[in-house]
Amino acid sequence: MSDNILKPDSNLAALLLRLFLALVLFPHGAQKLLGWFGGFGFEGSMQYFTGQVGLPWVVGFLVIMIEFFGPLALVLGVAVRFSAAAIAVVMAGIIATTFHDHFFMDWFGIQHTEGMEFFLLAIGIALGLIFTGGGVYSIGRFLRHEPSTSR
Length: 151
Known about the structure:
- By secondary structure, the protein is mostly helical.
- It has one domain.
- Helix content is 66%, strand content 0%.
- It has helices spanning 2-6, 12-34, 41-53, 57-76, 80-97, 117-132, 139-143.
- The longest helix has 23 residues, at 12-34.
- The protein is globular and about 50 Å long.
- 32% of the residues are buried.
């Protein structure tokens, strides 16, 4: 049974999971690292993490690196399980430190903060990828010379 969990799955679902998780998370990482999409860039993000949130410098740095490079790894299909696990940890950390008061997003501007539903969805997708691996069209599968059989 444990061999089945650790063996990369070749289905299309894993491909879709990793591409959509990357699509949603990459802009967040690009905001934090590069200042794209209206973000504050690396220095501004680090000031926020260490000053307002009170995180140690290394944790803020890891959050930025995981949110930027994790989605890139997912798109390429490289280190999918590692990237997905790291993303799940970051999302759980965000819930624990910031979004623990409300479940739903603040659609109507009546809450003092957003809810945790987005982060829970990201965790769920990441957990799925931890079990399935990268699926078809992943560089990791190509490097291991595994056949690409869809189910």
